[in-house]
C-alpha cells in the first residue's frame, strides 16, 4: 500500500543506485541501479515500484510471494526472494527500511506563520520560521525556539521554554517545563501539571504537599498522546535526551530518567524513582516509587517492579523478578493448572 | 431517580400498552395498558410512574421492595414482584430496559449551525444539518457528513473524512483518519497520531520509522474518552464496524480489529496485532504485538496475552492461558498461600 | 534547589521562630528564632537558608551530609543532624514540611477577569473574582462559584454547577456534573461523559443503554490529568468529599466512592462498584464491577479485585487476596522459580 498522497503528499522517487549508495550496500549482480522506486510497503502489499524488507523469519512465506521490486533482507534470506525482486542483503534491514521510507516521505517542515486566532502573550518569544496553529495559547514570558510547530489548541504555560524544532501537537499542554531541541509532545500530552503530592496524617487523612519543581525534557524527548508527566515536588522531574514515552504513560513527580529510555504504552512510574540510561519498560509496566533501575534494565510487559533492579538486568512478572526465575515460576504454575497436576 | 431534566430534558411519557407492543410482550392479566410512565430507574430508586428491570438474581431483594410501577424481568422472577408493580416477563429484560429508556430520553439531534468561532478551512466540506461547536477546527480538504456534531474544541486534521451522523465530542482530535457513518469520538479521544515506531540499532539506540498509514474506522465505531488509536506505519490501523473502545484504551499502529469488538477501559493492544470479529477484551488487558486473536475470543480483566488465541477461546491471567487452566492454577497458588500449606 | 521564581514567584521569607510557633514545637537550646529561611528543599539540595525534612531511615546518610539550615525530623533522628543544621523534632516531619513549604509559596489566587476569547453563554452565571482563561467555554445555564479558575480551553457543558474556589485547568472538560467547593480538574480531565453502557443480545451483539445519570463531585475532590469519570446510567456516579483521583484513572458509570479516598495513577474502577470512605487503590489497580469495598480498604499496586472486600482489609495480587495470603503465595511461587526447586 502506497502512502495516501492526501495525507503524505506525492512520494519523492528514488533510484535503486542512490538508495544502495546511501545504505552503503553493493547491488547484487545484474541489478539495475537506474530502477526508480516510489515508496515502501509491507511484503504482502508492495508492488513492483516499491521496496519492502524482511528481518523476522516469521515473514519468510510473505517474502517468497512478494511482488515488491526490491527487498532489504539479512544475507541468508537473499536467495529466497523471487526473481523479479532485487534482494539487498545487509545486517539491519528494518533500520534501512525506516531510513529509506523517510526519503520518500520526509516529515514536512513547519509552514511559518501564526494563525490569527492564536493568543500569544506580548512578552512571549516565538522563534523564526515557527508555525503556530489555530487557538494555540502561549503564556507570559514563554519562549519557543526556531522552526517549531504548535498544533491547534496547543497550550504553553507562562515562562516555559522549548528549544528549536519542537512539535507541540493538537491539544497538548505544558506548564512549568524547560525543554531542549526537537522535543515532541503528541496530541493531548500533559507535561508539568501538579504531581499527586499527598501527605498522610496520623488520623489517616491527608494534606497536599506543594509541588514546587519543574519538568526538564532533554533534546529529542517525545511524549505520547494523552501521556502525563507531572512536575516535581521539591526537585525536578527529569527526562533524559532522546527518551521516548508512548501513549497514556504516567510519569509521576520527581522521576529521573536517563537518556534513550523507551517507555511503552500505559506504563507508569511512581514518584521519585530513578531510571538509568537506555532502560526499556514494556507496555503496562508499573514501577513503584523511590526505586533505582540501572542502565539498560529491561522490564517485560505488565510487570510490577517493587524493588531496585541492577544495571543490565531483565525482569518479568508482578512482582517482578529476574526473567529466568519468573519464566520458570510461570512454567511451574502452569503445570499446577493442569487437570492432572498433583495437589501442591 | 428520574433523569435530571436540566441535562436530559423532560421525559416523553409512554403508555404501558405502547411499551408492551414495542417489545412484543403480552401484558399480564389485570394490567392497565393505559398506565402512563415518565421514565426508567433502578429497582431501589424507581417510583410508581417509572419502570425498572431485573435480570441478575443478585437484585431479587430489591425487586421485592421496589416502588416501581412496572418491571421487566425473567419469567421465573415475575411472581416475586410486589402487587403494585406490573411484571413484564421476557427473555432479555436488560436489553428491553435500555430500549425503553431511550424512548423516554432519545439522544437529542444536532442543533444545526456553525459557531462563529469555529475555524473551518475554506476547502473543507461540512454536510447538511451539522452542529459545529465553539473553537472547533476542521482542516484543509476534510469532509464531515450530514447530521454530524463537532463539540467544543474538536479538531479534525486535513483530508480526514467522517460519514453521516458522527459525533466528535469536546477536545477530541483526529488526523489521517477515514471514518464511516455514526462514528463517535468521546471527549479527548485521539485518533490518527503517529505510532510509536522505533527501530533499534545494533548499539541499542533507536531511530524513528516513518508512520505512513492511516486509521480506518468502520460505521458506528465508538472511541472512549482519552483513548488513543495510532495510525499505521506501513499499513492502516483498522477498526471494524460497530466496535466499541472504552476510555483510556491504547490501540497501537497497524492493529486490525474486526467488527463488533468490545475493548474495555484501559486495555491496550500492541502494534500489528489482529483481532477477529466480536472479540472482547476486559478492563486493563494487554495484548502483545504481532499476534492473532480469533473471532469471539474473550480475554479476562488484567490478562496479558503473549501468544495467538484460537477463535472462541476464553483466556485469563498474565501470561494468559485458557481460562480453566488459569483458574486451576490460581486455586493451587492460593492454597500455597495458606499458612498451613506444605512447602512446595 | 529553590523553587524556580519564574514559575513560583519569589519566596516569602519566614523566621525560624514563626515556623516553630506555627508547628507548635519548641526550638532546641541555642537555636536562633530570628534566623530567616527562604524556602524548602530536599536534604541533598538544601542550602543554609532552606529547611528540609527526614522521616524514612532510608535518607539518614543524606541527613548527615545536608547543608540545610534546619530540618524537621523524628525525635530519635535529631542527634544525627550536623551541627550547622537546627533539628526540629516532631511526630510528623513530612506533614510539617508540606505545611511550611506552602508558607513560602502559597497557591496564587485567581487573577479576576474573563479573557475576551472565552465563550460564556449569556445564561451562564460566573461568580465574583473568577479568572476565566483564553478559549474557555461555559455552556447554557452553567454556574461557576466565586473565586474559581478556568484554564485555557477548559470546557464546561450546559447546566453544570461548580462551587466556590474551584480550579478547572487547561483542556479539562465537564458535562452533566454537579460539583462542590474547591474541586480541581487537572489538565485534560474528563468528567461526565457517556459511560460504556452496552447491553448484549442473545446473538452476542450489543446495543447502547442510555446514560441518564450525572456525576456528583463532593467538596475538594481532585481529578488528575487525563483521568476519566463517566456519568451514571440509571443513577449518579458519586465521588465523596476530599477524594483524590490521580492521572489516567478510569472511574466507570454508577461508581460510588466515599470521602477521602485516594486512587493512584492508572487505577480503574468498573461500573456500579461502591467504595467506602478512605479507601486507597494503589497504581494500576483494577476493581471489577458491581463490588463493594468497605471503608479503609487498601489495595496494593496492580492488584485485580474480583470480589467484595470487607472494611479495613488490605488486599494484594491479581486476583486480589488478603495481603498475607498473597505475600505467602508469591514467596512460594518464587521458590518454584528457582532452578533447584523440586517439580511441584
Automatic annotation (TrEMBL), chains A, B, C:
GO terms for cellular component: membrane. Pathway: Bacterial outer membrane biogenesis; LPS lipid A biosynthesis. Keywords: Acyltransferase, Lipid A biosynthesis, Lipid biosynthesis, Lipid metabolism, Repeat, Transferase. The active site is at residue 253. It catalyses: a UDP-3-O-[(3R)-3-hydroxyacyl]-alpha-D-glucosamine + a (3R)-hydroxyacyl-[ACP] = a UDP-2-N,3-O-bis[(3R)-3-hydroxyacyl]-alpha-D-glucosamine + holo-[ACP] + H(+). Residues 37-103 form the UDP-3-O-[3-hydroxymyristoyl] glucosamine N-acyltransferase non-repeat region domain. One of its GO terms (molecular function) is UDP-3-O-[(3R)-3-hydroxyacyl]-glucosamine N-acyltransferase activity. Its EC number is 2.3.1.191. Transmembrane segments: none annotated. GO terms for biological process: lipid A biosynthetic process. It is an enzyme of class 2 (transferase). Homotrimer. Catalyzes the N-acylation of UDP-3-O-acylglucosamine using 3-hydroxyacyl-ACP as the acyl donor. Is involved in the biosynthesis of lipid A, a phosphorylated glycolipid that anchors the lipopolysaccharide to the outer membrane of the cell. Belongs to the transferase hexapeptide repeat family. LpxD subfamily. This is UDP-3-O-acylglucosamine N-acyltransferase.
